[in-house]
Task: inverse folding
């Protein structure tokens, strides 16, 4: 049974706050330090499990499960709707949390390199909600707890299958080796679908399935405009490492140089710089250098004001110093 708020003592509130800090601290650290959010989530899951276990031993019952695990019977009560999220940071045992953490890190780190932090977090939350809402609807009125990050883990697989199915990532599928994402995702979801009708264990197979489906359906609208174009085939960012993958993702967003807003008006040094820019501007660093030189030699093609270089999401562009609508190129 869940623990009503009227029975939560001041001491219990303090314990819950400690658990919440353990959940949020690794996420905040990952965001500020620009380290992979998937690793931050993994650390968050481990820390909250440690706090949950210590409180269970200290209090004499699983306090955080009573306060935060999902209960379909309480699902529509406004004061209990936090359970749709908090349940994903609670686990039944050590094997449960370690299994989810392993999948989230192995799948999440390369997927995050494709999506970017913000979009990755959106997909992760959709996986949580998709899994918990599906399980709640199928078990309406039940007072059996549902907890764990499995819906989110399967959601990551659903997103990856929808957007970059030909990526290869390290994964313990039969053997620990590099496997195509499509093989991993289809094998895992097929296993869940086969087990669901006859399952007698306390594993929430339906939450896995609905988390997967929710992210698969919503993946492309969210991934559009992310770090790497949907459908890119380069064997996956994990084959290059995070920094190189980020570099390649930024390069993929560079615009063409074949046309320019001056339309033949450039002469002398500015024209020669433009020619060198087109010849050598396929790398981030050389493009930046030639654009900086061009900014000193050319003027805005609309108002003839000075122009400047500006970095936008890692890519250097030229902009008019008077009115940005006059010039923002390339």
Result:
């Amino acid at each position: 049974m869940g623990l009503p708020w009227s029975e939560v003592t001041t001491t219990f509130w303090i314990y819950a706050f400690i658990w919440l800090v353990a959940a949020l601290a690794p996420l905040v650290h990952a965001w500020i330090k620009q380290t992979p959010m998937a690793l931050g989530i993994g650390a968050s899951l481990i820390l909250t499990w440690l706090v949950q276990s210590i409180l269970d031993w200290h209090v004499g019952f699983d306090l955080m499960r009573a306060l935060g695990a999902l209960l379909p019977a309480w699902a529509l009560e406004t004061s209990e709707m936090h359970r749709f999220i908090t349940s994903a940071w609670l686990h039944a045992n050590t094997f449960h949390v370690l299994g989810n953490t392993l999948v989230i890190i192995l799948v999440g780190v390369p997927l995050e390199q494709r999506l970017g932090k913000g979009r990755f977090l959106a997909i992760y939350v959709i996986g949580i909600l998709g899994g918990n809402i599906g399980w709640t609807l199928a078990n309406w009125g039940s007072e059996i707890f549902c907890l764990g990050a499995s819906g989110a883990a399967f959601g990551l697989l659903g997103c990856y299958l929808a957007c970059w199915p030909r990526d290869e990532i390290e994964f313990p599928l039969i053997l620990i080796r590099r496997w195509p994402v499509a093989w991993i995702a289809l094998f895992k979801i097929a296993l869940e679908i086969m087990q669901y009708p006859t399952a007698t264990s306390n594993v929430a197979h339906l939450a896995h399935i609905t988390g997967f489906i929710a992210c698969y359906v919503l993946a492309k609208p969210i991934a559009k405009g992310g770090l790497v174009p949907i459908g890119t085939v380069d064997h996956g960012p994990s084959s290059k490492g995070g920094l190189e993958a980020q570099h390649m993702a930024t390069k993929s967003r560079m615009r063409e140089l074949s046309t320019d807003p001056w339309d033949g008006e450039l002469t002398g040094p500015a024209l020669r710089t433009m020619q060198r820019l087109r010849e050598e501007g396929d790398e981030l660093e050389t493009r930046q250098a030639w654009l900086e030189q061009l900014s000193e030699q050319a003027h805005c093609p609309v108002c003839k004001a000075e122009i400047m270089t500006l970095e936008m999401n890692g890519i250097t562009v030229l902009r008019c110093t008077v009115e940005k609508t006059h010039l923002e190129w390339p």
